[in-house]
From TrEMBL:
<keyword id="KW-0547">Nucleotide-binding</keyword>
<dbReference type="InterPro" id="IPR043001">
    <property type="entry name" value="IP5_2-K_N_lobe"/>
</dbReference>
<keyword id="KW-0067">ATP-binding</keyword>
<dbReference type="GO" id="GO:0005634">
    <property type="term" value="C:nucleus"/>
</dbReference>
<keyword id="KW-0808">Transferase</keyword>
<keyword id="KW-0418">Kinase</keyword>
<comment type="function">
    <text>Phosphorylates Ins(1,3,4,5,6)P5 at position 2 to form Ins(1,2,3,4,5,6)P6 (InsP6 or phytate).</text>
</comment>
<dbReference type="Pfam" id="PF06090">
    <property type="entry name" value="Ins_P5_2-kin"/>
</dbReference>
<dbReference type="GO" id="GO:0032958">
    <property type="term" value="P:inositol phosphate biosynthetic process"/>
</dbReference>
<dbReference type="GO" id="GO:0005524">
    <property type="term" value="F:ATP binding"/>
</dbReference>
<dbReference type="GO" id="GO:0035299">
    <property type="term" value="F:inositol-1,3,4,5,6-pentakisphosphate 2-kinase activity"/>
</dbReference>
<dbReference type="InterPro" id="IPR009286">
    <property type="entry name" value="Ins_P5_2-kin"/>
</dbReference>
<protein>
    <recommendedName>
        <fullName>Inositol-pentakisphosphate 2-kinase</fullName>
        <ecNumber>2.7.1.158</ecNumber>
    </recommendedName>
</protein>
Amino acid sequence: MSISKGLVDIQLVPADWDYVEEGIENVIVSYHGKDPKLQGWVLRLTKCDVGADADVDSHEASLFRNKELQRKQDALEFAASIVSPIVGDEYVLPQMLVNVSTEFLLQVRENIESQRPTKRLAKCIDSRQSASMLTKEMISRTPADNTQDVHSVTVELKPKCMALPRSEFFAPESSVKHRVCWYCMHQYTLHEDGNVSKFCPLELFSGDRDRIARSLDHFAQSPNNNFVVFVDGRSVVDEQGKISDKCVPHWDLLRDTVADIAQKEDLFSRLQLVQRELDSFNIESVLPKYKHAMETGTLTTEEPGIGAWLNTYTEFRKRLDSGSNDDSIVSDCQAVMELILATTLRDVSVLIKFDSWPARNATDTSSLEHSKYTIGVVDHDPKKLSNIPKYHKLDRDIVATYLQHNPDEARQRPCRE
C-alpha cells in the first residue's frame, strides 16, 4: 500500500475518463488516456442530490469545499492508520487526493450521464468538491497482454456480515440474531415476496473450501449489488439476471479459484475476527449509550477526527490483546465508536482482479496465468456517528420483518460460522 497524504496537482482531461460503476456516495470513473502517471487509476467522485450544487453562493461553496477536503484527508489517514493495521497493509490499495476543477466535474458528469443506471439518477457528481480520491484500478477494460485469448476479470464481493453477534444485551424478541445473521434476515425486508437468496455470508467466511464454493454459487443465483463480476470492465449477468457460464467465461473455474483465494487469504479471517469483537455490544445496547454520551457532551454532533479514531483503535487493541471479555469497563463513547468502526468494516467491498483470464474459446485452462490475481478492499471511509439512530431503526425493522415471515423458531434456518 502507498497512500499519499498531500494534495496532488495533475492535469485532468474530462474526455479521458470512462464510467465504471457507482454506489450511494460515489461515482467511479477510470482513466483511458495516454498519461503514464494516470494509467491504471480510477477517480472516486462524490455525489449529491440533483440540484444541491446549483445556485450556491461563493461563501457557502467555499465552506463546503473546505469541509469536504478535510473529510477526504481524514479518510486517507483513516485508511493508513486504522484500516491498514486491521486488515493488513497488503490489502489497502494505493490512493491519493488530487485537485479537480468545477469545469472538469461538470464535463465528466455530462459525458457519463447516459451510461448510469436509472435507479441512480436522483444523484449526480457534486461539482462543489475541490479534490477527489485517485485509487489504483481494480476493474480494467483490457487484459494484461491485450489479446483476444484472455480477458480482464474482476470479482467484487460485498458480504455485509462476517459473524454472528456475541452480544448478551438483546431484547428477548431479538434473540434470533444469535441464530440468523443480519444479511439473511435483511433479505426478507428487501424481498417482500419471500423470494430470498440462499446465500449466507458466514459460509463465505467459514474457511471451509467446499462451503465457500457453495456460497458463491448461491451468491451467483441472486447477485444484486453485493456480488458483481466485471469482464473487461463491464459488469455482466445472463438473461435471467444471474452470474453463470453464459456471461462469464469458465464460471465454474472462476468460482473455484475465488473459493481457493477466500480460503487462503488472511483478509477474510481478519475481517471476521474484528467484526465479531468490535460488534460486541450490538446496536440495541449502543443506542442508549449514544444518547447518554450526547447528553453529557462526551460525544457531539461533530464527526470524530483521526485523533478520536486512533484512540478508539488503541483502546480496542489493548482489550483484544489482553483477552479481556469484560465489556463493563468500556465507556459509552468507546462502545459507540467501536460499533461505527464495525459497521464501516462490514460495508467494505473485496475486489479480486485477474489480468489474464482465459477466453471462452480457450481449450486449455490449466495454465497458472489465470490464477495470478490482485486482491484489495475499497469503500472503507468511516461511517457517521449521526447514523446511529437510523441503524437502530433499521435493525428493529429487519428483525420484525424476519419474524413476521418466520415466527416459528423450529422452522428458522440457522446460520453457521
